[in-house]
Amino acid sequence: MGDVESLIASVSPTRPVILIGHDLGGLIAYAAAAQLPAGRIAGLVIANAPHPNVFQQLFLTDLAGFPPLQGQLAASSYLLTFFPSDACPMPGLCPASVPEAYYSNPNENGDLDDPDAADYVNLIRLIQSWGGAPPVDQSLFEAWNRTPGPTYDTHLTSMLNWYRAILPLVFEPLPDFTINVPTLVLWGTEDGALVEANVDLGTHASYPGAQTLDAFIPDLKVEKYTDAGHFVQHEKPIEVAAEIKKFVDTLPAVSGPK
């Protein structure tokens, strides 16, 4: 959130901004919109990212009913594969001693300087399981291969550490992230990593007693796409861009120099 606040101060020191976030970036965007000083953010746009308070309540409700593995707990179970088996937050459920090697081994087919789908097959399978058709191509293989790490078996460590750091927070008390700016949530319902209950309004059919998204965001619009998944902004770029423009056009004009 501090990084976001500094970026806003740098790029728009005199006018509030519209903040847009997806997935982990969306979690940060929710928190920033709730906790940064008033007047820094004029509107919030979220694409398939859960509100921290809602997600926590859904996750812990499903955990309390375990077994069976169901709901948001089941959808989030891939997170355990990012932890080394000797540092597992739920002992016995983390299968790999070096998760980075499981998800990315650019020496798999002997072409160390030319990473491709053969090297990242397990990472690609994971991303595809989240629903829709993510844009996995050669440029992404090369970008993944450039992420920091001391060896080819650990170069995804910096990215996986985001998940390793955030999962324990699910079990700790969170602040009340109430958001008092207009908010648009764009949601692909085929998301395999996030259950649709994250964007329920009013009541939850499967989570009685848990708070719904509108309990934390008074000025809220949710737009669902039944033919898209976790990467809705890639799968429906024209529709998402049009919806964002329509939302921005409804926001009050902000005076001051650009």
Q: Can you tag this structure with a few keywords?
A:
alpha/beta; globular; 10 helices; Rossmann fold; four-stranded parallel sheet; 258 residues; 35% helix; 2 domains
Structural class: alpha/beta
**Fraction of residues in H or I helices:** 25-40%
Order of strands, main sheet, comes to 1-2-3-4
The total number of structural domains is 2
What's the CATH class of the largest domain, please?
Answer: Alpha Beta
Count the E strands: 4
What is the end-to-end distance?
Answer: 23 Å
The low-confidence parts are none
What would CATH call the architecture of the largest domain? 3-Layer(aba) Sandwich
The share of residues in extended strands comes to 5-15%
The major sheet is characterized as: 4 strands, parallel
What's the rounded overall pLDDT mean?
91
* SS summary, helix count: 10
Could you write a compact summary of the structure shown?
By secondary structure, the chain is of the alpha/beta class.
Characterize the structure shown:
The chain is an alpha/beta fold and 258 residues long. The chain has 2 domains: 2-58 and 176-250, Alpha/Beta hydrolase fold, catalytic domain (Rossmann fold); 72-170, no CATH class. Helix content is 35%, strand content 10%. The chain has helices at 2-11, 24-35, 52-64, 71-75, 99-103, 121-129, 138-146, 157-166, 232-235, 237-250; strands at residues 17-22, 41-47, 183-188, 220-225. The protein has a 4-stranded parallel β-sheet, with helices on both faces. Strand 1 (17-22), helix 2 and strand 2 (41-47) form a beta-alpha-beta unit. The longest helix is centred in the last third of the chain and has 14 residues, at 237-250. The radius of gyration is 19 Å and the shape is globular. The mean pLDDT is 91.
